[in-house]
Amino acid sequence: MSLNIRKNDIYYMLEHNLDLKLGPVVIPASTLAINIKIFINNHKLIEDDSNTDLIQLISSKFQKFWTLCDYSTTEEVSRDSQHSFSIICKEELFRDYNRCITLSSIDISIYALTNSTDLMLDELLLDFNYLLTSWYISIEQIYPFVFSINGRKFIKLNLHWHKRMMLEVLGSNTFIDISRFILPLIGITKSTFITLSLLKDSKSYPSILAESNLNTRKSTSIIKSFPLQIIDMNDVD
């Protein structure tokens, strides 16, 4: 899959590769690696003595979104890696289940082509964010249990009550056929909780970026509630 856009005199392209086989239910592996390659005029950004701080700064801006998806995340930057950097996501939601097809890595390559010699980091990341958001809206529809912020929260809540019911009724929750359990929830998640479905809803919702206490979260329009900042643009100089 690739996306291509032009903004003024800069051409952008995003390509991605997913390490999995297609199936009706796809969940994250226990460790999901988001591998990012950034190319400026076909020159790949990698860590070296001259740009360590730059790579560290850029990678830190990619981490927050995946934390919102309910992963435990860390950044991985190494000059021995073929990637510019990686965001390593530790999966907690489906960690006890291995009967479904799992996604263990995503390779994303972002290209910027320009004749300009004066590229501003904040403008570059803003354009990258636009490109990644467009990609995310498409991929979320296909694999909501991996990518959907609200879809994963919905599954988390249903898994909690299903396990509690199993414990109370059967006296054990150690065996759950997760694929059979979540298969009926795929349609509900896609029709109700993914971004495009939420954008069709005229209701007001608490902001997903606000504090976690639901009693103090202020309701707002759907566009403000789900801004989809894949890259954290705060404090970018």
Q: What's the order of the H and E elements?
A: EEEEHEEEHHHHHEEH
Average pLDDT value?
A: 82
Q: Count the helices. How many?
A: 7
Q: How many beta-strand runs?
A: 9
Cα distance, first to last residue? 31 Å
Which residues form runs of ≥5 with pLDDT under 50?
A: 209-217
What structural category arises from helix and sheet content?
alpha+beta
Tell me the major beta sheet: 7 strands, mixed
Using the alpha-carbon principal axes, give the shape: elongated
Strand fraction equals: 25-35%
What is the total domain count?
Answer: 1
> Portion of residues in helices?
25-40%
Compute the gyration radius: what is it? Answer: 19 Å
Describe the structure.
There is one protein chain. The chain is of the alpha+beta class and 237 residues long. The chain has one domain (1-237). Helices cover 38% and strands 25% of the residues. It has 7 helices and 9 strands. The strands form 2 sheets. Strands 1, 2, 3, 4, 5, 6 and 7 form a 7-stranded mixed sheet that branches. A hairpin with an 8-residue loop joins strand 5 (72-76) and strand 6.
